[in-house]
Amino acid sequence: MAGNHEGSHLITSFPVVFFGSLILAAAVGYFLHRKLNGLPKIGEKFYDPIILILGMWCLIGLLIDAFAHIAGSVDDTFFTPWHAVWYSGSAAYGTYMIYAIMPEGGMRQLVSEPFKTLRGIENQHKPGVYGIIIFAVSGFGDLIWHETLGVEENTDILLSPTHIGLFIGLMMSVSAPVWSAWANAKSGRDGIRSQALIVFGLGAAWTVALLMIRYANLWIAPLQSYCYSATVVFCENENYTTALEIGLQSLFLQAALTSTVVALFLKRWEPERGSMFLLFMFHAVGVWVYSEFDSRLLWMGVSLALLAEIGVLAYQKMGPSVYISLVAASQVVVLLLFSLSDAARLSGTRYWIEGVNIHLIPFGWSIHSTFGAIVVCALIGWITSIVAFSPEIPETDDH
User: Fold this and answer.
1) Pairing status of strand 365-366 against strand 351-354
2) pLDDT tens by residue, 325-342
3) Could you tell me if 120 and 50 are in contact, meaning their C-beta atoms sit under 8 angstroms apart?
4) Is 150 within 8 Å of 2 (Cβ atoms)?
5) pLDDT of residue 88
6) Residue 146: closest CA among 166, 173, 171, 169
7) Which of 17, 77, 137, 140 has its CA 20 to 30 A from that of 93?
8) Which pLDDT does position 163 carry in this prediction?
9) Interatomic CA distance for residues 250 and 377, integer angstroms
10) Angstrom distance (rounded) from CA 151 to CA 328
């Protein structure tokens, strides 16, 4: 059930936030309609910026709602102010999408032939449309789920079936400009401004994915949960293998996620100056919010973003395989460096010898595993680059 019950004021604030936000959005929409002589239809100029803004509205609602669940500030009801932010954004997105895909026959044709209308949408625009449909269906299911089975908290929020649907729908919705740009042969070729929508769309989707596997992120987890005890009294694990395996599983999973996001971008576009920094700032903000606004996590994220931007020089000279490997390994290096001083202060040591092995702070892992984890994360990045940039299959004379 819920954590800290906040009382009936949550319910009363829901309509204020929900309808207040939509009234404001309607006013902005009316202004744009007058200024642009009609809002853009699907695929027209300014369509992608509008759906990205609406998608970011939904994402902000997700971040607020996720923080509320993680912090235990929830009530046994669906009708909370953070849900109001999230679902008002989806209502605005859905309303605009209905307008954008409206067939020539108007609402009557849309209602009578919905599947024909959806099939007629160009493939590059389908993720945004289908995403908000999945989100709407999951949102309605979430209402029923909450009101009948209670409210999730902590890691449970990541495994609720309706929440998984919401995550998938939101990822598709916010990444819509990415797929639209993918089909445009001239996209992303004219500086950071030409890649801004792409980076924001991909970064927003990455932020959602970070939440989905938040439980397996050593940046967010307390150091005590995965470091090895031995002579270090502040660690929770007395079994070395347990501590090591907990850590490695999380490091490798995050390396795979980061490598996939970067490889997806590089598969289609050459990074302009500042684009990788901006993309990795979504990662920084995500872990900052999911850690309940731990400033240390924010600075770690900024450091990784700077390394990713500087590493573009390696990409330009040695290609995507080296760059993706460096970025994946950098996540471990940043974590090690930022954890080192705290671990040394708490443990009173920097290393110790156990049997024939040297164990190193901050993780307390052996020297083999500490450096081996960096190498394997780089290997994961390299394998991801092989999949993304695999050699072409040679053609044969057979018909």
Assistant:
1) unpaired
2) 999 999 999 999 998 877
3) no
4) yes
5) 87
6) 166
7) 77
8) 85
9) 11
10) 35
Task: Give residue for tokens 């067939």.
Answer: 103
**Tokens 């083999």 -> residue:** 368
Q: Residues with Cβ < 8 Å from 34, sequence gap 6 or more?
A: none
Residue type, 42: I
| pTM higher than 0.70 | yes
- Which residue type sits at 207? T
Distances (CA, A) of 346 to 117, 247, 341, 352, 386: 62, 19, 9, 15, 42
Which residues in the chain land under pLDDT 50?
A: 1-8
Q: What is the 3-state secondary structure (H, E, C) of the chain?
A: CCCCCCCCHHHHHHHHHHHHHHHHHHHHHHHHHHHCCCCCCCCCCCHHHHHHHHHHHHHHHHHHHHHHHHHCCCCCCCCCHHHHHHHHHHHHHHHHHHHHCCCCCHHHHHHHCHHHHHHCCCHHHHHHHHHHHHHHHHHHHHHHHHHHHCCCCHHHHHCCHHHHHHHHHHHHHHCHHHHHHHCCCCCCCCHHHHHHHHHHHHHHHHHHHHHHCHHHCCCCCCHHHCCECCCCCCCCECCHHHHHHHHHHHHHHHHHHHHHHHHHHHHHCCCCCCHHHHHHHHHHHHHHHHCCCCHHHHHHHHHHHHHHHHCHHHHHHHCHHHHHHHHHHHHHHHHHHHHHHHHHHHHCCCEEEECCEEEECCCCEEHHHHHHHHHHHHHHHHHHHHHHCCCCCCCCCCC
Contact between residue 304 and residue 276 where contact means Cβ atoms under 8 Å apart:
no
Task: Count CA atoms closer than 13 A to 37's CA, side-chain side.
Answer: 2
d(CA 36, CA 128): 22
Q: What is the pLDDT of residue 2?
A: 38
pLDDT score for 12:
66
Is the backbone of residue 205 left (phi > 0), alpha (psi -120 to 50) or beta? alpha
Quick one: tokens of 87?
Answer: 């679902």
Both tokens of residue 298? 């924010």
CA distances from 377 to 32, 257, 381 (A): 47, 11, 6
pLDDT of residue 3: 42
Residue type present at position 5: H
Q: How many residues does the chain have?
A: 399
pLDDT in tens, 157-186: 778 888 899 889 889 988 988 998 999 888
**Is residue 257 classed exposed, middle or buried when 0-12, 13-18 and 19+ CB atoms within 10 A define those classes?**
buried
